[in-house]
Design a protein that fits this description.
single chain, 298 residues, 2 domains, five-stranded parallel beta sheet
């Protein structure tokens, strides 16, 4: 009698749990639901003697649940593997090695530019370098642009060229020059000082006043700035060499890096100038190659 009651008690506990398994299988695993054929009324009708069949069906339900769980785990693992293959960050060692490959070319560059080059390998964002020239892009800027792209790659330097078409320093201050430069969104600027245009209009002392004002306004754009003298010229006011040194002093006073290419010109600069005072083809090449070697020096 005690054995029968215990048997019935076990069966009733199983009977209470069965509808939960049935509901799970109906919702999550329709293919398994036919394995469970007994409901509450059927169980009570057949009594405790059917408990072994309930056990069979319970086992079937547990088996289906195990199949569902295993399948879900399998697909989750596949998804995780695919996601990990899509996102493959570049190791820090590789970035440092890339910079070390080009760092040998930077010995002439000021520290702020060396740091900017190194930063491009970390942030994967090129330096926006604007070359500001008095004439056209086929002069010294073309040599610099080609040299930078061939040595460092376009991922390091994004070079743009802007010509102010032989305006004087005073004219640049009152024109749209600053807005035009800002629109190019430069990280660095290499400015050809408008000395050649200024010397036709004013002495160097007056030109330096306007140059100082222009430097201050450019620095307000929060960009790196470097200055170089203009092309050689013959002036009625002062010699080209005197003007070069005067512009150097103004640049240094404003903590601006000065690239002095005047040392490459012979004493008689007329051999590099046309009758109209423009640079000859040989003069453009000599100027451009000097700057290219300065940017890319071993």
């Amino acid at each position: 009698m005690t054995f029968v009651l215990e048997k019935l008690h076990v069966s009733l506990r199983i009977e209470r749990s069965l509808p939960v398994f049935v509901e799970i299988l109906h919702t999550k695993a329709p293919l398994c639901k036919n394995l469970v054929i007994y409901n509450r009324d059927k169980l009570l009708e057949r009594g405790a003697c059917m408990s072994w069949k309930i056990g069979v069906n319970t086992g079937a339900a547990m088996f289906c649940g195990l199949v569902m769980y295993t399948g879900m785990q399998h697909w989750q693992e596949k998804i995780d593997v695919q996601a990990s293959e899509l996102v493959k960050p570049v190791p820090a060692e590789k970035k440092e090695k890339q910079f070390s490959d080009v760092s040998i070319y930077t010995k002439n560059l000021p520290p702020f530019m060396v740091g900017a080059i190194e930063h491009t390998f970390v942030q994967n964002k090129p330096i926006s370098l604007v070359l500001v020239t008095a004439t056209e892009a086929d002069g010294w800027p073309s040599f610099v642009k080609t040299s930078l792209e061939e040595t460092y790659g376009q991922d390091v330097f994004d070079v743009k060229v802007y010509s102010y078409h032989n305006q004087t320093t005073k004219q640049l201050i009152s024109s749209t020059f600053l807005k035009d430069i800002q629109a190019l969104n430069p990280s660095m600027i290499l400015l050809e000082a408008p000395m050649a245009a200024d010397q036709k209009e004013m002495p160097i002392d007056e030109s330096l006043v306007y140059l100082n004002e222009l430097i201050v306004k450019i620095k307000e754009l929060n960009t790196g700035l470097m200055i170089q003298p203009s092309q050689p010229y013959a002036s009625k006011h002062e010699s080209y060499e005197e003007a070069v040194e005067a512009v150097k002093g103004t640049a240094e006073k404003n903590w601006v890096h000065y690239i002095n290419h005047s040392k490459v010109w012979r004493y008689d600069v007329r051999s590099y100038l046309t009758k109209e005072g423009d640079m000859t083809k040989a003069g453009k090449k000599l100027w451009g190659m000097y700057l290219a070697d300065w940017f890319v020096s071993e």
